[in-house]
Amino acid sequence: MFIKFLTMQIKFITLLIISCIALSSNSQTAIIAKYNFSHVRDTNNPQNIYKDIMIMTANNNASLYKSYSYHLFDSLMEHSTSNEEIKFPKGSPEQLYTNFTTQEIILIRPLINDKFAIKTSLQKTDWELIDSTQKFGILICKKARGKFRGRVYNCWYCPDIAVQSGPWKLNGLPGLIINATDEKKQVSFILSEIWQTQNQDVELPKPLTYITEEKFNEMLEALVSNPNAFLENNNSNQNNTIEFKQNSKVKKKLKWNNPLELN
Amino acid sequence: MKFFISILIFAFCISNHCFAQKIIINGSVKDTSNSKIVGAIITLHLKKNNTVIAFSYTNINGNYEIVFPEKFIHDSCIIKATALNFEATYKEINNYNNGNLNYNFILKPSYKNLSEVIVKTKPPIFSNKDTLNYNVENFTSKYDRSIGDVLQKLPGIEITPSGIIKYQGKAINKFYIDGKDMLDGRYNIATTNIPSDAVDKIQVLENHQPIKVLDSFSISNKAAINLVLKDKARNKIIGKAKLGIGYPFISTDNEIVPLFFSKNIQSIVTLKYNNVGKDYAKEQMQLYEDFDDPVIYINNAYGEMVSINQPTVSGIDLDRFISNNQFTATINQLKTTKNNNDLKFYLDFSNNNPFVNSSNSLTQYFINDTFRITEKNYFNQKENLLKGSLQYSSNKSLYNFSNTLLFKFQQKNISSIITNSNPKDILQNSNYNNYSVSNKVNTFLKKGNNLFNLSLLIGLEQQPQQLIILNGMYDTIFTKTPNPSFVVQDINLKSYFTSFNVSWNYKISSKISFSNTLNLNYIKNSLNTLISAGKQDSLYNMKNGFSNNLIPHQTTILNTFNVNYKTPKLLFSINIPFTFNSINFNSTHINNLNTTDNFFELVSTASYRFHKNWKFSIIASNQFSISPSIMKSNSYIMYNYRYLKNNNSIVPVTNNFSVESALNYRDIINSTFVTIAFSHNNNNRRPISNNQFINQINLNSALNGSTNGANNTISISYSKYLPKIKTSITLQSLFSNIFSENYSKNVNTQFTNQNFQLLLKTNSRIKEFSISTNTKLNVFTNKSEFGYASKFSIIEQILTFKVPVNSNAFITLNSNYNYINQENLKPIHFIFPDFLLTYSINKLKADIELGAQNLFNQKTFTHISFNGNIETINQVELRPFQLLLKATFYFK
Hints:
The structure holds 2 protein chains of 2 kinds.
Chain A: H1 2-24, E1 29-40, E2 49-58, E3 62-67, H2 68-79, E4 95-99, E5 104-111, E6 114-121, E7 128-136, E8 139-148, E9 151-158, E10 176-182, E11 187-198, E12 209-210, H3 213-225, H4 227-234, H5 248-251
Parallel strand pairs in A: 6-12
Antiparallel strand pairs in A: 1-2, 1-11, 2-3, 3-4, 4-5, 5-6, 7-8, 8-9, 9-10, 10-11
Helix pairs in contact in A: 3-4
Chain B: H1 2-18, E1 24-31, E2 41-46, E3 52-57, E4 63-67, E5 77-82, E6 89-93, E7 100-102, E8 105-107, E9 117-118, E10 125-128, E11 131-135, H2 136-139, H3 147-151, E12 157-159, E13 165-167, E14 170-171, E15 174-177, H4 188-193, E16 199-205, E17 224-229, E18 237-247, E19 251-261, E20 265-274, E21 326-336, E22 342-352, E23 355-365, E24 370-395, E25 399-419, E26 426-447, E27 450-470, E28 486-507, E29 512-535, E30 538-541, H5 543-546, E31 547-550, E32 552-566, E33 570-585, E34 595-600, E35 602-608, E36 614-626, E37 637-640, E38 643-646, E39 653-667, E40 672-686, E41 688-694, E42 697-703, E43 707-722, E44 727-744, E45 747-766, E46 769-784, E47 789-804, E48 809-822, E49 828-841, E50 846-853, E51 860-867, E52 870-877, E53 882-891
Parallel strand pairs in B: 1-7, 1-8, 15-17, 38-42, 41-44
Antiparallel strand pairs in B: 1-4, 2-3, 2-5, 5-6, 10-11, 11-16, 12-13, 13-14, 16-17, 18-19, 18-53, 19-20, 20-21, 21-22, 22-24, 23-24, 23-52, 24-25, 25-26, 26-27, 27-28, 28-29, 29-30, 29-31, 29-32, 32-33, 33-34, 33-35, 35-36, 36-39, 37-38, 39-40, 40-43, 41-42, 43-44, 44-45, 45-46, 46-47, 47-48, 48-49, ...
């Protein structure tokens, strides 16, 4: 009884301390930006352009970047009852969390019912600032150019939005990146909407299982080659049983010759 | 020993350079409660232009460090700290000598809310060096069909009624589609036929030099337009097919326009037929000359001598008063070869038969005379025109070669019935034919700092023409034939012309170059004219005094020395042409008509961009122009039923001194364009063109002496695009003062015409509504030294509303309003409303349109103009109420 009371007290005090810290600090402002992303994945088939709408939440310290359709999907899942049938959306299920304080990038990749986190260090882009100004809507932007992962990007950033974030892994300019297009015009991130919210933190989604990229790829390969065996081995914690039907299409691996990251 | 000392000094210098002290700026960023701010942005700016030269962020401890770029050590700089949720704070850096500088910042919280903004992904206008890009989608509404609809909404760009595109007040010098000049200046074909949704960007190429090899040797103040097509418009056939039929029976308006654009092939074909007054032949008009064409062909044969002028009015569209029957066809093809050379040809055909009924009142004021004529004119034209060109060109950075073959066949017949106070109606009938062919070769070769040019033009032109006048008023003049019932003017004009051009350009440095161009022109004309008169079936030739048999040989040598100075901000050019002109008549019965003239001229051009948004340009010139040798005659030539002219004197020469200056402002970020222009023109013409009126006939002859003219114009143009309310506004004002001298009966009359013009043009999209207005106020004041004065004002207003009915249909309401207020007369009003219902069938990619024109069935329209000493009041009969049902299918 005493132990239970003590545990309750500790929990209460901890909650009180956290609340006090939260209330004492400034209310957090975050920027939410929507980007139109397009990518020519296969140069042999340049007409077939992969397109997605991405959403990024950013503040001074961090940013979280994900597909807008999955953003809506996650929101629906939070508020849905178990009886509702919610279809998986199109678009990329991956999320990218950039922490400028710790100089880390965490790639969040879902697999079945788990979310795996792959941590890498933030790669600094050597931006060349170009003396060119352009107005996007009401935002006055400056131009910059830099090489990142084998591609040369021309970017427009807005010094009036004082965050160093940008779409995907592009960041490190003195203002939010509004627009980025690679020189070959194969990849582009174009801002379509932007707004500001109060009291919103930019946080890592939870729960997460930290894993290395190699290990994740192994798991993915195991799932693709034999889904049912994979589920049997990894499904101990799950209440729901998912049965995979062998689909010949799954095996047919799509071949693209133009990845987003060239090196 | 010296060697070692040198090495030591060199090594010392190198080491000094290598170990020069780095300037590092560091510090911390905290908030007002002394808490560190992580991720704050620190930027280092140049004080003079706010350019960011370095930047950094605060780390986990709220500290930052920036390495100061050494090359800016002599510049004043500002360091700025900012973070989301905080106010930006600035500090000036004054002293760099310490090596390490420390600047700490305390930022005040700021809760400025960035309200939700929808950012248009593409800005309306953006620039890249000398290229201005207009994003078409920002200016397009769903009601726009052709790229011409969009072009007229762009700030900084103006389209004249004939279709000429002007950028900041100056006509463009090239029109490209995807970087290719397929249309050779006939760009109305593109602006009226390329769909607006096929174009991604409209680019303005400022200071454009079309010939690549000339780029570093010459300067250009003109701009070009380039349409950048969308990917979806390439590599497939796009275009439209239109079928229209309606009342009065059977009004019809049809066209088929297939277009094809790919990397190596461009093609535009148009076939159009209408009888509703539309002038599709206008599309085939050449809207710019080849300004940079080195072949300076002096004195092209002046050909159409017996043309009968088509009565016209301004202030309303031509299709309101011209009835017609018109078929036009054009084929334009461009093929780019593997070596990136272009082969292109075009073929234009038009069968154009316009007819206009009008009442004209013309008054010509002189100090000693007033010539007045009032008549009704029934004008009817039949014209067949076939023209074409075949060109092969190679436009490379080291050489340029082009060969152009041009030909033209034209047959024009005009008949005009004049009814006035004469007992019988006068009938004029003119026939004009033109058959011409010419070939032009141009070569440029660049060798280091030298550029050589050779070009040759040869051509033949034959222009037989005839004018027959029935029941004319020549009985007092043609005394040999008393009371002739008809007179005939026969003209046979043949011309052979050639022009050879050689030039050498030398670039002294990247900024300065000079050139010397020698141009040799030779034209041999053969002009035979004969006036005959007769009664019924008898015809008399009146050789004495009524025929010309002239074979003038005109040789012109032109040498031009040119110096150019070019920096990114300043362009300066000075041209000193020297002209030697000789005209020799191999004629037995003309004496003392051989003439020679020498002229020194001067043309100077300068443009200075003294700020990124501001540019000043000026062109000053003192030039002479010699009229074609055939303008000289020894006896009368009958131009129309009341105008006989004898240039029985020296060859007409005009000396023109002009200054054109412009101050241009363009702010791309705020989409604002301003042009303030001033032009002064002073001209002196010899000989005097002396009028003598006998009844209603003007006998014009030459007198020794000269007349003067002057023109001063100041104009201000402001245009802006407001993206928030999707509105473009153009406001223009103009004031001109024109002075002229005119002779009648050897006495000079001086006239001054003043015009004040105010124009407001707006184009807005409010939600689904589209509203465009075009309002023009003109005030004309005319006075002479003998006390004549008149004043009148004209307001022209066009309002167009486009209103959606549902998602597929919209209504267009169009209204033309004209108001004429003349002193001591009752004001005149005209209003012409039109209605159009458009229904889009998306499945068929088609529009069905039901249009009603001239809803109030107005019968006539009047227009007044005053030019020099001539006042003209033209009243045209309008086309009646018209109802037209059109189906337009789009190939997308």
